[in-house]
Amino acid sequence: MDARCLVRPATHADLADVGEIEREAFADPWPADTFVAHLSDLFLVATNGPTVLGFLIAGIAGPTVEIMNLAVAAAARRRGVAGRLLAAGCDALAAEGVSRVFLAVRISNVAARALYQRAGFHEVGLHEEYYRQPVEDALVLARRLGVP
Hints:
Helices cover 28% and strands 40% of the residues. It has four helices and seven strands. The protein has a seven-stranded mixed β-sheet with strand order 1-2-3-4-5-7-6. α3 (81-95) links the parallel β4 and β5. The longest helix is centred in the middle third of the chain and has 15 residues, at 81-95. It is globular and about 40 Å long. The two termini are 28 Å apart.
């Protein structure tokens, strides 16, 4: 089932909800103040009315970008929210002239790996012991943007 949502840039007003989703989704969540610093990056939220369903943060460094964080509230998972955020993020980055986007994903996160594969990402490397809680390797995935 597809979630009805609007994808838009995040604002300060969204940060409490974003922090709650982060704590719910990750064993080693980012500190709340980290999100304020990323408002100047590509920081998108998916909303349904006043409810934040998920978010995506990407850091731009020249022609390449790293998707640093993507999370969806538990109640909104498996409804297309992450895919919509990922597509909107890649479209916005391509419009800015970004040619390649990278991300890291836990090896054990089968659902996320499937999402990224469907979105055109492929494996380009491995970060050993990248995650801390629990300690786990990360696959490094990449996708070219703006290429048919």
